UniProtKB/TrEMBL annotation:
Domain N-acetyltransferase: 15-170
Protein name as it appears in the record: GNAT family N-acetyltransferase
InterPro entries assigned: Acyl_CoA_acyltransferase, GNAT_dom, N-acetyltransferase
Pfam families per UniProt: Acetyltransf_3 (PF13302)
Length: 181
């Protein structure tokens, strides 16, 4: 996969997070095809995925951050996505994570999101990062709680209800499980 020039690749003990690009379209569709995975984030056609990935590339260019493909460092297998997404309508930067079902329950979401938070609060200097979690998504709510997020408000994202969780830089424990390469 091609990488976006001048944007960091984050690494942890087990993971590599690289900026998503339009070259990831087929993989994005496959990731979101599983009904258990897309239950809260939705499925994508190839056209919808291509549009979403172009928007992610644009966000990397304009804001210097965006969503990343999460790959296993040992094998290079893409197992999910995690990163920062700017929501203009809320004027907020969200940390988001979605992983293939075969990789649930192994701590990958917490590990990847921790690296993203270190980067967001550190190198990017963000004061607050949110996480928008659909009602009933207990695993994502548990990841958010492990990372130190607290519920902030109820809201709507793409016409669906979400609980917006927030974490301020001062509340981040600074536990570095990742680095930038």
């Amino acid at each position: 996969m091609r990488e976006i020039a001048n944007h960091p690749v984050l690494t942890t003990e087990r993971l590599r997070l690289r900026p998503l690009t339009s070259a990831d379209t087929e993989w994005w569709v496959r990731l979101h095809a599983d009904p258990e995975v897309n239950r809260f984030v939705g499925a994508y056609t190839e056209e919808q995925a291509a549009d979403r990935l172009r928007a992610i590339e644009q966000q990397w260019t304009e804001r210097g951050h965006g969503l990343c493909a999460v790959e296993l460092r040992d094998t290079g297998e893409a197992i999910g996505r995690c990163g920062l997404n700017w929501w203009a309508q809320y004027q907020e930067t969200e940390a988001g994570w979605t992983f293939a079902r075969a990789h649930w329950g192994r701590g990958y979401a917490t590990e990847a999101a921790s690296a993203v938070l270190d980067w967001g609060f550190g190198a990017l200097g963000l004061a607050r990062i949110t996480a928008m979690i659909a009602p009933g998504n207990a695993p994502s709510a548990a990841v958010a709680a492990r990372l130190g997020f607290s519920p902030l408000r109820e809201d709507t994202l793409s016409g669906k209800p979400v609980t917006v969780h927030a974490l301020d830089r001062e509340g981040w424990n600074g536990t570095t499980v990742g680095s930038t390469a």
